[in-house]
Design goal:
The protein is built from 4 helices and 6 strands. The protein is α+β, with helices and mostly antiparallel strands.
Length: about 180
């Protein structure tokens, strides 16, 4: 059976306070190179998820995206005034140092509010139950991606067989002319 190297799989895990969405995308690759793109997973769990994906897929350049949605009311964002003030002070000091005209206050505040660590999501440690749900979602996404690879592989096999048949037909048609030479 021919398996394609490209594929896509997606799964969700609903926990008490969060809903996790795990997406896996795979492209051609001789080895299994797994790239994690998430801020929802604690650092100690990343190697475990990476290993799980690598064992399940074996080959390909694989991107894993894990996003989390907090259930409303459970986790609130808090504004860190000290961090925002420090950013604002650094920007205005730099502006004065470069002798640039003062920026529009509203646009400056909008910029500062988009900077890292100004908004802090109060997140708790990941529970074992959440990790098990994410692991199960990873297994489901790997299954989906493998099914995608199988479907794509069947299409590739049919195309390859068709091309081989065309070559055989061509050679069979040319063979009588070759014998005359």
């Amino acid at each position: 059976m021919i398996l394609s190297m490209t594929g896509y799989g997606k799964a969700q895990a609903c926990c008490q306070n969060e809903k996790y969405t795990l997406e896996i995308k795979s492209l051609n690759g001789k080895n299994c190179d797994v790239t994690m793109k998430t801020s929802a997973l604690p650092r100690e769990k990343e190697p475990l998820l990476r290993q799980r994906v690598a064992q399940g897929l074996v080959r390909g350049n694989v991107d894993v995206y894990l996003s989390v949605e907090k259930n409303s009311g459970n986790q609130a964002k808090s504004f860190d005034k000290e961090v925002a003030t420090a950013y604002l002070q650094q920007i205005t000091d730099w502006q004065n140092e470069l002798q640039l005209p003062l920026a529009d206050t509203a646009s400056l505040l909008q910029t500062v509010l988009r900077l890292p660590e100004v908004w802090d999501i109060n997140k708790s440690e990941m529970s074992e139950e959440d990790w098990q749900a994410i692991a199960a979602a990873a297994d489901q996404a790997i299954e989906d991606l493998t099914a995608f690879r199988i479907r794509e592989g069947k299409t590739l096999e049919a195309d390859l067989r068709s091309r081989v048949a065309n070559i055989r037909n061509y050679l069979a048609a040319v063979e009588p002319y070759e014998k005359e030479r």
